[in-house]
Every structure is written in C-alpha cells, then in structure tokens.
Amino acid sequence: MRAPYLTPEGCEGSITSHHPEGMMTRPSIPRRVLFALPAAALGDPAEATPTLDRTAQIIVGAAPGGGTDTVARLLAEPLSGRYAPQVIVENRPGASSRLGAEALKVAAADGTAILICPMPVLALCPHVLPRTTRYHPVTDFTAAATVGELAYGLIVRRDHPATDLSSFIDWARAKGDVTFAPPVAGAPQHMLGLALMREAGLNVTVVTYRASTLALPDLIAGRLDCYMSHMAELAPQVRGGQARLLAVSSEARLPGFSDTATFAQQGFPGITASEAFAVMLPASTPPNIAAALNAAIAEAVAEPAMRERLAQLQMTPLVLSPAETAARLAREFTAWGPAVRASGFTPEE
User: Fold this and answer.
1) What is the pLDDT of residues 153-203, one digit of tens each?
2) How does pLDDT run across 260-281, given as a tens digit for each residue?
3) Which of 218, 241, 266 is the last residue of a domain?
4) Which helix (H) or strand (E) covers residue 73, if one does?
5) Is 20 exposed, middle or buried (0-12, 13-18, 19+ CB in 10 A)?
6) Domain boundaries, position 253
7) Could you give the number of structural domains in the chain?
8) In this structure, is residue 68 part of a structural domain?
9) What share of the chain is helix, strand, coil (3-state, %, to 5)?
C-alpha cells in the first residue's frame, strides 16, 4: 500500500560542503518501551467520562495534509469523549513547526492545549536555530506521551552502481566527492548524513533544497548522489522502483524492507536513531491531566485500526509515559548540542 507522504518538518538552515574532520556524537536514543493498559482503560469510550469538560485542541505547527497533521487528526477522533468532549486540530504552520511550540508555550496550563510534533522540533531546533527559537524544550513544556517513531533511510537512484552501503562508499571514494541532500537543512537527517560521511572518510558537498519535492527529481535523474529522509517519504519511492534503499537507521531491519540492512549492521552503529512524535502540554500542567492524556493516547494507539494507519505512515507505535517522554526529550536535547557543533553546521537566520 502506498504510504501517505509525511512532509519534512525539521529545522531550516544552509550549508554547502563538509569534509571528514572528526565524528559527530550520536544522540542518545532510549530503547523502545512497550506500553501497557490497565483493564479499565479498555472499556467503551462512549461510556467514559472525559477528563476535561471543555473542547481541547491539538496544535500542529505545519500545514494541513502533512505527516504531523495526519497523526494529529488520527488521534483527535479517539481522544474525543475519552480525554475531552471534543478534540479539534488547529494548524499553526511556520518557522519549521516552531510557531506551534510557541503557541503552546503561552497557552493555559489546563489541558485544553496540546502540541504534537516530531521530537527534533523541540530537541534539535534550539541548537541549529538558537537565535530565533523562542522556547526551551525542557522547562517550557510538560511531556505527556509519544505516539510512534520513524526510522531514517539513505537512498540512491534506482540504477546506481551501488547495491548496498559498502559499495556506495567504495564508489564515492573512487569518485572523490559525493553530493548529499537532506529534506531540510539542519534536520536530523542532515546531521546523521554528515556523521556517516565523516565516519566513512568521504568528502561531501551538501546540496540544500527548499522542499524535498525538488530534491527527489534530482536524485532520480542522477544529478544528486544520495538523499536521506524518514521512511514515510522514502517508502513510496523505493517500492515504486524509483530509488534504491541502501540502509536504515533503526535498531533492527524494518518490516517490509527486510532485505535492507541497518547502518549498524553495515558497520556504522553510530547512525542509529529514530524520530519520535511527541505530545506536549504547557509547563505547569497538573500531573493528573498529563497522566489522563497519556492513558487516552495509549488506549487509542492500542486499537488495531490505529496501529494499521500508523503502519501505513511507516510509524512504529510507541507510547511512552510522561516521565519517559520527558527523559527522552532531555537526553536528545543534551546530545544534539555537541552533535551540531561537531557537524560544523552554520545556520542562516
């Protein structure tokens, strides 16, 4: 099945070229934590009493139709009646999804304002866009849950001479320089791609695009050597025969792409990462509200229909507790600082 396209919603910036001068520190990613539901959580939502007595809104820092918007709308329906009488989605696109986070920061801490976003919007943007990011990911928000996570992948054109990561590195060394593009400059894929090139000892020229829809045609036509993005974007290209997948960033091979080894299996354990979708509340939100939202999300994600829809988005269901979500966010925020400095990335703001 063709997976809906998730728009890259990382951080903006610009960079032209990099050379192998050191190695980026890998952001610390915790092992997957499976969620468990109390027996009482499995009842009919129509019989449940919502935690809130007012409408709640899920803020999305991207335009309608993108990946985060899709996940938010998938959640809004089951949360209606479980968490609040009605849950609606409000799009606040702009500033690489940071406008949504800024809106949550100043919202009332009563549980009616919820943010869903890729965790790098919170953990990475303050490092790559320090002058224009107007929030602190740890102190300005209350963590509620995660919904799922995405792996990243590296692709080349379908008729590229390389058939795996090792043969691509050999090809690139013989060529002398490799052109590489992430979906958005400063995104996690950008940092991980640079780390891979440095570890492999390759000279790389980073080509930046205003949108991934411009990068993919160049890759397919052979004007770009390789491209790294999350699997929601890459899966249709690979399954459609337009691109070849060389490696994935997950800890284990991905269902549906079992013939493609991970970066770790091909000698690059440092390129192991995933992009979690975080659900956040304003700072000072009472813990019982965060716990109630977490329980409602866990119940929703446990439903087979929801898990199937997430799978179509190439997302692995993952519901962390509020404490686990906060801990993962803090670890990623701490790790991305030295990683960005090691990369040599210089944002244009």
Assistant:
1) 999 999 999 999 999 999 999 999 999 999 988 999 999 999 999 999 999
2) 999 999 999 999 999 999 999 9
3) 266
4) helix 67-79
5) middle
6) 17-24+151-266
7) 2
8) yes
9) 40, 20, 45
